[in-house]
Amino acid sequence: MTSYEPLLAHPWIARVDRTGTGGLVVTADPAALAVRHEPGRPPVLGDLVAEHLEHWGEVYDWTYRSGEGTHRADLDLSGWRATDTGEPLPADHMAEWADRTAELVLRHQPSRVLELGCGTGMLLHRLHPHLKAYVGTDIAGHVVTRLDGLGLPGVTVVRAAAHEINGAAVRTALATMGERPDCVLLNSVTQCFPSVDYLAAVLRDAIDLVVPGGTVIVGDVRHSGLLEEHYRTLEHPAAGAGPGQRAAADTELLFDPVTLAAVAAGANRHVTLSFFAKTLTGDTELTRYRFDAVLHVDPVVAPAVAVHVWDTMGPDPLAVLAGLARQGDPVKVVGIPNALLTPAPAAQSGAGLRAALHGTQAVVLLDPDDPMLLQAAVPAAAAATHPDALAGVGRPHEPLGAFARKRLTEVARRELRRAGLTVPEDLTAQVPSGAGRDVVSLARDAAGADRAGRVALTRMVPGAHEPVSDDMLAHLPASIRRFDEIALRALTGLVGGVVRPGAPRTVEQIIGALGVAPRHEWIVRRWLEVLRTEGLVRRDPDGRLETVASEPMGEDDGAGLDSACAALGYPEQMAIFFRTALARLPELLRDEIMAQALLFPDGDLLTSLSKDQNNVSNTYLNAAVGHVLARAAATRPTPLRVVELGAGAGGSTAAALDGLGDAEVDYLFTDVSRFFTMTAEERFGDRLRYALLDINADLVAQGAARAGADVVVAANVLHCARHAGRSLRWIRELLAPGGLVVVTEAIREHYLVLATMQFLLSPREGEPDLGVGDRRGGTGRVFFTGRELPAELAEAGLRPILELPGSGSPLAAPAQHLFVAARL
Question: Which segments cross the bilayer (predicted)?
Answer without folding.
Answer: none
